[in-house]
Amino acid sequence: MTSAQWVDRLAADRSLLERTSTVERVTDLLRQRIIQGELPPGTQLSEVSAKDALGVSRNTLREAFRLLGHERLLEHEMHKGVSVRKPTSADVTDLYRLRRIIEAGAVRNATAAPELVAAVSRAVRAGEQAAADGDWTEVGTANMRFHEALVGLADSPRSNDAMAGLLAELRLAFHVMSTDERGELDPSRTREFYESYVERNRAISEQVAAGELEPAASALEEYLADAEAQLVEAYAARG
């Protein structure tokens, strides 16, 4: 995505921010753009362009950048400014260690709330529809929502907050599975990575709906181990 494109997308989001815009809302908006894959690793974020696009003060934007830096989503380099962070292989290992704790734990401690179970199913259907449409970037976004919904099963606001930051870091890590050796987007690689997980998401969703929580958690742990191995291998290949 070019500089002009991401600025235009932020400008389109301006209507989402009321005059009483807060740092938290700007931070969440930028985080969501990362989760959706619209701000890939290495994207330079012009402070002037972003504040003008969103119609917020420089101080508000700087604080949002600072908070996202603490979440390991942005980084500031002297003489280069703010950019979207590029995760490392060590980051992947630690992210998946935390995923197993949060996601599998949430499934094992899931509530029976129908609306929470329904959210898991909706995310699965969205991924299946995107796959049928051949939109593998959208499959990746639906996959994020699926895992977010799994954590939501625990009905814990703190777990949900932790997962929100985790998902954004994961989307940055997944970028290596969507690009070739030159760092250019390669739709065939995106499909290769996500395709097998569409069916696995369906299977876990059905286990959750049937109240088979321990089998679902075990299947999820195996799933996460496989995904971690793929990512670590991809990072190693890139050196």
Outline the structure in words.
The relative contact order is 0.12. The chain is built from ten helices and three strands; from the N terminus they run ααβααββαααααα. It is mainly alpha-helical. The model has no long low-confidence stretch (mean pLDDT 90). It has two domains: 82 residues, Arc Repressor Mutant, subunit A (Orthogonal Bundle); 150 residues, Four Helix Bundle (Hemerythrin (Met), subunit A) (Up-down Bundle), CATH 1.20.120. The chain is globular, with a radius of gyration of 18 Å. The chain starts with a helix and ends with a helix. β2 and β3 form a beta hairpin. The protein has a three-stranded antiparallel β-sheet. α2 packs across α8 and α3 crosses α4.
**Name of the CATH class of the largest domain:** Mainly Alpha
Structural class: mainly alpha
- The overall strand count is 3
Biggest sheet character: 3 strands, antiparallel
Notable traits:
239 residues, mainly alpha, Arc Repressor Mutant, subunit A, Four Helix Bundle (Hemerythrin (Met), subunit A), 2 domains, three-stranded antiparallel sheet
In brief:
By secondary structure, the chain is mainly alpha-helical. The chain has ten helices and three strands; from the N terminus they run ααβααββαααααα. The longest helix is centred in the C-terminal third of the chain and has 26 residues, at about 215-239.
